[in-house]
Design brief:
It is built from 6 helices and 5 strands; from the N terminus they run αβαβαβαββαα. A 5-stranded antiparallel β-sheet has the order 2-3-1-4-5.
């Protein structure tokens, strides 16, 4: 179990620690489903084992957050777990984000919200593709514009000659 938790801390782009005291099983299953759809996972682990797994890791500072009934939400995408947990916390007052880690950087609750507001990897790729495609579309429009202007001028001359 400790080795598995250590692997989670080492390979995840972001790990969010939250308190889930008072949540129903159905609410927890809903969180798991949302996280799975975003490409992440949710793990409830004994705090003592998680602290042992954190020992010697760059994100070991999040060990102080592991008190009481805590859950770990994590994803390889550095934004996905933060987005899902932030959205879930807004809709469920029993789920409270305590903080987390992004690589070797410790995050407080406000830091997790800041990460959640960042665009995901897919959104960034779409923005980059849009930026790359936009100049090409503008260039094609600029190249085609003179031809359409010439055609309009010729049509006007033809109409005047016919009248």
């Amino acid at each position: 179990m400790v080795e598995e938790l250590g692997q989670i801390f080492a390979s995840s782009g972001v790990v969010v620690v939250a308190r889930y005291e008072g949540m129903t099983v159905a609410e927890m299953q809903g969180l798991r489903a949302e996280m799975r759809a975003a490409g992440g996972s949710v793990r409830v682990a004994k705090n003592r084992l998680a602290k042992i797994a954190l020992d010697g890791r760059p994100c070991a500072s999040i060990g102080k957050l592991l008190t009481g009934m805590t859950v770990l939400a994590y994803s390889e995408d550095p934004v996905a777990a933060a987005k899902v947990t932030d959205k879930f916390a807004r809709g469920n007052e029993k789920f409270v984000i305590l903080g987390g880690a992004m690589g070797d950087t410790a995050l407080d609750a406000a830091g997790v919200k800041a990460v959640a507001s960042m665009p995901s990897r897919e959104e960034l790729i779409a923005q980059i593709v849009s930026c790359i495609g936009s100049p090409a579309a503008s260039l094609a429009g600029a190249i085609g514009a003179p031809a359409s202007n010439i055609a309009g001028i010729l049509k006007t001359i033809e109409e005047r000659a016919a009248a």
